[in-house]
Amino acid sequence: MKPKLSLITLALAGVASVLHCISFYTSVEIPDVFLTASRMLVWIGFTVYAFRKKSLTTWILVSMIYGTEIGLHFPTFAQNLQILSKIFLRLIKTVIAPILFSTLVVGIAGHSDIRQVGRMGWKSLLYFEVVTTLALVIGVVAINLTGAGRGIELPAGYDQELPETKPQTWVDMILHIFPENIVKSMFYGDVLPIVVFSVLFGISLALVREERRKPMLDFSESLAETMFKFTRIIMYFAPVGVGAAIAVTVGHLGIGVLASLIKLLMTLYGALVVFILGVLLPIALVVKVPIRKFVKAIAEPASIAFATTASEAALPKALENMQKLGVPGKIASFVLPTGYTFNLDGSTLYLSLASIFTAQAAGIELSFGEQALMVFTLMLTSKGIAGVPRASLVILLGTAASFGLPLWPIMAILGIDELMDMARTAVNLIGNCLATVVVARWEGEFVEAPDDVNYN
Question: Which listed residue, 21, 64, 319, 380, has the most CB atoms within 10 A of its CB?
Answer without folding.
Answer: 319
